[in-house]
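Worked problem 6 (solution included).
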Amino acid sequence: MSARDTTGGLTPTGTISSTTDRRRVAVATVVGTTVEWYDFFIYAQAAGLVFATLFFGPLNEEYPGLAQIISFVTVGISFLFRPLGAFLAGHFGDKIGRRPMLVLTLILMGAATTLVGFLPTYAQIGVAAPILLILLRVLQGISAGGEWGGAVLMAVEHAPKQRRGLFGAMPQIGVPIGLLLASGVNAIMAAIAPGDAFIEWGWRVPFFLSIVLIIVGYWVRRRVEESPVFEEIAERKEQVNVPVAKLFARFTPLVFLAALVFVGDNAVGYMTTGGYIQGYATNPEGPLGFERGPVLWAVAASSVSWLVATFAAGVLSDRIGRRNTFIFGWIVQGIFVVTLFPLVNSGSLGLLTLGLVLLGIGLGFTYGAQSSWYAELFPASVRYSGVSIAYAIGSILGGAFAPTIAQWIQTSTGDSTNVMWYLLIVTAVSLVATLLLRDRKGIDLSPSNEAEQERGIYIWEKV
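Solution. The predicted structure is:
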């Protein structure tokens, strides 16, 4: 039997969740995802700005430009290990709870990020330097693969059903905030340590700052109550022994369609979060040759538009549905993908900033409703595994090697217009996947409603 909460609504599980509890969860998910993605993005930005020189420089001696391509490959390698993090966190998150996994993934990400700041370069220890760099990036990938699913479920499963889009947008906005922090800190360091000083030591400081952020994130997440949906699952003793096995035995098409929904946003987003635009715009031998600082501030500005649009998409999805919000988002994103490179290649910092800010709007409207839609698509007993693995696979197919692919296209053809066509194709793929899934806004998420949760997922099914 459902119980009334202090807001006058009905909780989906029978567990009373007060307004104060919900606000605490919202703050914790924003802070936690911000810390996780700050760590993830400062690596990607460093890959675009300095890692090619510091860790892979000798590759340019025989093949000019190869060092930068390999530097971006290390960004993508971590995505290959996201499914491992998703499998582990999903398995234990569906068995022992969402909260413990959130704390563990936060600590793992912070430790790996901080250690990157201490790494010696290729000039100091030779080939061991890039090997250690890649190993630490792998640990970041495992952490990122497990973190997102837990964060979104904590937010959505605590939310009243009529406001799941709003609450689900909370962990989503942590991503652009993380990009804002990463870009801002790197821009400040580029001003404090300009030129060679940034390459010698300035790039390390943002990695060291992760220690402070991890302490704050750990304190906030430890204060959050467990998800009421998982508490009901535990109370009923309905945890599945091997959630991943059940997931793929019964919901394999859903996993891959949900992954394809994420492909377009992730690939386009990694033009900035993966460091491609930063490297392209600041390359002294490229067509633009801008200073690092102004370009990083332009990326920071784009993260603000991304943040606002992400929040707006979550709110909008509570009114018009998750699917309709995504369809609108893919159209907007496609338009701003077309305008991106003409504005970037104009040679004007102002127009470059405008291009990135507009792109951020498209990214927000294809990201804000993802948490709530994913949570409503997967049944309760495999929900953590489902959302985490779908997100991880989407990351591999979308953003993992998007900067590498873009760099290869640019190097091979010398024309950024071809990068635009690549981004339009992945946007179209996600639009098609969106059209194949039903909207499930407001469905009861509790384990007692699992039979209904397993029906009516695809448009070809009878409801």
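Discussion: Confidence is low (pLDDT under 50) at residues 1-16.
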